[in-house]
Specification:
- By secondary structure, this protein is an alpha/beta fold.
- It has a single domain, classed as Vaccinia Virus protein VP39 (Rossmann fold, 3-Layer(aba) Sandwich).
- It is 30% helix and 26% strand.
- The strands form two sheets. The protein has a seven-stranded mixed β-sheet, with helices on both faces. The protein has a three-stranded antiparallel β-sheet with strand order 1-2-3.
- Helix 3 links the parallel strand 7 and strand 8.
- Helix 5 packs antiparallel against helix 6.
- It starts with 5 loop residues before the first strand and ends with a strand.
Length: 219
């Protein structure tokens, strides 16, 4: 999700006219992998502790390079200030595309994860460029699995996130804005708003052309 996105009173996140399902719904397929002490790595400024605790987490540590969440720990993902094997689960959502050195970050996440623990990461595949403040990469299913192998992590599952409405709608909206065409933007806005509002649940049958992949690693 882009840095310009917001969350409405209904729980939908929005980028322009593009609706995205509430995060609780997005995370539900991976809910069983959250337990014990959980690190929300790259938490941003939205506190989702209640969602993670609803899935079974006992304690949430919010951590990011900057955050407005009360009590959040501030620091770089390239040098996480926790001992080895500190967390039962780690959540890292819409973060790995924005870090300059993904291998250092993955090494740190693997280091602080307990043996037998789970890392749940949401990473874009078919998404437009979105700066926060930079945007470095996209991953296929195989690319994500290989990223885990390189850091001693085993892939448990790779799940699709969102439907084709979000994929096509977001690309179309960003295209219209880049063209700076008020006619295109005006035409596309209403269509994309309605389509993504009506079709927002993840299509679990889209395993090769997902908007986002949610990968579950174990250590």
């Amino acid at each position: 999700m882009s840095s310009g996105s917001g969350t409405s009173a209904t729980g939908f996140a929005r980028v322009g006219p593009v609706h995205f399902q509430p995060l609780e719904m997005e995370l539900r397929p991976a809910s069983k992998y959250f337990s014990g002490r959980v690190l929300n790595a790259g938490c941003g400024s939205r506190d989702i502790s209640s969602i993670l605790k609803g899935f079974g987490a006992a304690e949430i540590i919010n951590y990011d390079i900057e955050s407005e969440i009360p009590g959040a720990i501030i620091g770089s993902l390239e040098d996480i200030p926790f001992d080895d094997n500190s967390f039962d689960s780690i959540f890292c959502n819409a973060v790995l595309e924005h870090v300059p050195n993904v291998h250092i970050v993955m090494g740190e996440l693997g280091r602080v994860l307990k043996p037998g623990g789970h890392l749940v990461a949401g990473v874009p595949f078919l998404q437009p460029m979105h700066l926060n403040p930079t945007d470095f990469r996209r991953y296929t299913r195989d690319g994500l699995s290989e990223l885990g192998v390189l850091h001693g992590l085993k892939t448990i599952d790779v799940l699709p996130v969102h439907s084709m409405a979000q994929t096509i709608g977001w690309i179309a909206w960003e295209w219209a804005q880049e063209k700076k065409s008020t006619i295109l933007m005006g035409t596309i806005y209403g269509v994309v708003w309605l389509w993504t509002r009506m079709s927002y649940k993840t299509d679990m049958s889209i395993t090769k052309n997902a908007n986002t992949f949610q990968i579950i690693y174990s250590k």
